[in-house]
Amino acid sequence: MNEKDQAWGLFWCSLLRPLIEGETEDEDAPRCLREIAAQEHVFPDGQRRKVSVSTLRRKWRAFQKGGFEALARKRRRDRGQSRKHTPELLQRAVELKKEQPLRSDGTINQFLKQQFGKTIPKATLYRQVSPARRWSFGDFAQTLAQLLGRRGGLSAFTSDELEVLGKLYPRVQCTEPFLLHADEPAPEKTIPAIAFQLQRLSDGGERTNP
């Protein structure tokens, strides 16, 4: 899954957050979906538009069955795949990296060897699961805003919050796997809580509660 696919997954998660986080009971799901559909949303492609109830219902069912991976935009199955490695092998490598972004290529290959009897060269593995491009500050802010349930990118934050993020950005590893991994254990979806986890991960520590 590349960055664009993950952006779409995050977008749908942000729309379905009341259902995903249990804020809405199952019997109230239809009403919740109608309320979401009645609003305009900024899509990952930059367009502002509404989404139909049927699409939201389909996305919610997909999440219930397959989690975050099921919400990412579907791409051609043969696009970007290495001819030397099976889709299952590459997908497992991606899953292992997402579970723990600090896992090295050696550790991931140990799991792959055990499960498939095969390994992936370091260069191929890095290209598949560890995009080298550091996020721009705008990309970092936009995804953080989505995780916090806010709309927009830089405009989603106050000037004081942007000052905090500006100081945090050069000190941590601003890549999508790190931000997603830091968001999971945060006791509250707030900038200080996520920043604390990001700092620990970048320093080589484990996630923990502040």
Descriptive terms for the model:
11 helices; two-stranded antiparallel ribbon; globular; 210 residues
3D architecture notes:
The chain is mainly alpha-helical and about 210 residues long. It has helices at about 5-15, 15-20, 30-35, 55-65, 85-100, 105-115, 120-130, 135-145, 160-170, 175-185, 190-200, and strands at about 40, 50. Helix 8 packs parallel to helix 10 (about 175-185). The longest helix is centred in the N-terminal third of the chain and has 14 residues, at about 55-65. It is globular and about 50 Å long.
SS element count, helices = 11
Share in β-strands: under 5%
Q: What is the alpha-carbon Rg in Å?
A: 18 Å
Helical amount among residues, as a percent range? 40-55%
Count of all domains: 3
Main structural class: mainly alpha
List unreliable stretches of 5+ residues: 76-83, 205-210
How many angstroms separate the termini? 31 Å
Which outline best applies? globular
Strand order of the largest sheet: 1-2
Order of helices and strands: HHHEEHHHHHHHH
Average of pLDDT? 76
- Main sheet properties: 2 strands, antiparallel
Number of strands: 2
Q: What can be said about this structure in brief?
A:
The chain is mainly α. Helix content is 54%, strand content 2%. The chain has a two-stranded antiparallel ribbon.
Topology:
Elements (H helix, E strand, L loop, with lengths): L2 H13 L1 H4 L8 H9 L3 E2 L5 E2 L3 H14 L20 H13 L5 H12 L5 H8 L7 H11 L11 H10 L7 H8 L7 H12 L8
Antiparallel strand pairs: 1-2
